[in-house]
Specification:
11 strands; globular; mainly beta
């Protein structure tokens, strides 16, 4: 399993970013996927997840601002982040879930991409 996240960077409060995750080494269309973020010194937070059929859930902290999506033709997972806040600053990881539904736990996590929200 390989999960390569990209798209992070420095953005001002209120700005937007799109994260991408290129997945390989498994049947991408058969598994639920998630985005997990972590601030150094704190525990991970599951930001959003999506089932194999596109059912989505979001953490309350990002609901209405972030949108998760997947392109099975490209084996790619996305996270569109709008109205970014300083508290969204974290390393964002793409994660494969242990099954097809989005309520499964994380089985694999790739290298992260840093998102910094600051003026």
């Amino acid at each position: 399993v390989q999960l390569q996240a990209s798209g992070g960077g420095l953005v001002q409060p209120g700005g937007s970013l799109r994260l991408s995750c290129a997945a390989s080494g498994f049947s991408f269309s058969s598994y639920g996927m998630a985005w997990v973020r972590q601030v150094p010194g704190q525990g991970p937070e599951r930001v959003s997840d999506i089932s194999d059929r596109g059912r989505r859930t979001y953490a309350d902290s990002v609901k209405g601002r972030f949108t998760i999506s997947r392109d099975t033709a490209k084996n790619t997972l996305y996270l569109d982040m709008n109205s970014l806040k300083p508290e969204d600053t974290a390393v964002y990881y793409c994660a494969k879930l242990a099954g097809s539904m989005n309520w499964y736990g994380v089985s694999d996590r790739g290298q992260g991409t840093l998102v910094t929200v600051s003026s």
